[in-house]
Task: structure prediction
Amino acid sequence: MALQVELVSPERVVLETEADMVRARTIGGGDIAFLSGHAPFLGALDTATITIRPAGGGNDIVAAVHGGFISVNEDVVRVLSDLAELAADIDTERARRAEERAQDAVRRGDDTEAEAALRRAHARLTAVGGI
Result:
């Protein structure tokens, strides 16, 4: 049986699909993968990527997520993220420029927002295979 996957941000439903596997990174828990029949789970998402392996094969779907939560219950995986972007929708050059600005700010000793911006840029670039 396939997993039902919903990837949602405050602005929109980013993706609804069936999947054989979903892999995410949680805060304090590291990477975790979900298959059909997984025990109920609730976790806080780190700024990282989510990988969704479509049911029946095909290329993995990768998305950058910037915080939020993931829940699994009865083969339904819900990802509720503050900001979620499918790799196909990410502007790679814009992400690279954002990474450079954030790296400069971190080097100058700017606050934690610069470090958060750098993590977001890395998640976007990882999603598109740029890191």
About this structure: The mean pLDDT is 92. Helices lie at 92-107, 112-127. Residues 47 and 119 are 6 Å apart (CA to CA). The chain has two domains: 3-87, 90-127.
